[in-house]
Automatic annotation (TrEMBL):
Gene Ontology molecular function: acyltransferase activity, transferring groups other than amino-acyl groups
Residue spans crossing the bilayer: none
Domain called N-acetyltransferase: residue spans: 12-176
Entry protein name: N-acetyltransferase domain-containing protein
One family name in Pfam for this protein: Acetyltransf_3
Highest taxon, organism lineage: Bacteria
PROSITE patterns: GNAT (PS51186)
PANTHER family xrefs: GNAT FAMILY, PUTATIVE (AFU_ORTHOLOGUE AFUA_3G00765)-RELATED-RELATED, N-ACETYLTRANSFERASE DOMAIN-CONTAINING PROTEIN
Length: 180
């Protein structure tokens, strides 16, 4: 369910990270605007390698009841190329909630691929893993991601504000919820 997961769509193969993904994943996440709306620093190549290794370890430990992190590579089937990531993991502000997230290389945006990947992972979470609810956060200026979430059936719940200092990077983000 986690280690050997392969989620197929018409144009994409979505699968757990592998060591061979490090260079391609680093190329994607180090694009100039990739982290424009993400409340994290751009990782170094070594950071990406550690994330991939940690993700592989998480998949050995993930269970339906406790998803540590389920990081997935988005592969363009036509070119067999890693073009982004998506996945499920505990929501930083409430570890009892499972968050859906996704990010795509700039050259592949605007083609419906992010929605295709997010939809596939959403369905996998509900129908294979057995989740009953998922959440997602998005910066309100990230109109493309807002449209994707809303088109998938996510409902705006609130705007995150007055957060503790250690979680301030989510300040002003919109919080969305979807139930099975």
């Amino acid at each position: 369910m986690f280690v050997d997961a392969v989620i197929e769509t018409d144009r994409l193969r979505i699968r757990p990270y592998q060591l061979k993904d490090v260079d391609s994943l680093y190329e994607v996440v180090s694009e100039p605007n990739f982290y424009q709306y993400v409340p994290e620093e751009v990782p170094t190549h070594d950071d990406v390698r550690k994330i991939v290794e940690w993700s592989m370890d998480c998949n050995l430990k993930n269970t339906k009841e406790n998803i540590i992190k389920f990081n997935l590579a988005i592969i363009d089937k036509e070119y067999d190329e890693l073009i982004g990531y998506c996945g499920l993991g505990p929501f930083d502000l409430n570890k009892n909630k499972v968050e859906l997230y996704f990010g795509l290389s700039e050259q592949y945006r605007g083609m419906g691929l992010a929605k295709e990947a997010a939809s596939a992972v959403l369905n996998y979470g509900f129908n294979v893993i057995g989740l009953n609810e998922m959440v997602s956060t998005v910066h309100p200026d990230n109109i493309a991601s807002v449209k994707i979430l809303e088109s998938l059936g996510f409902v705006y719940f609130n705007t995150l504000k007055d957060l503790p200092k250690n979680e301030a990077y989510f300040e002003g983000h919109n919080y969305y919820v979807i139930e099975k």
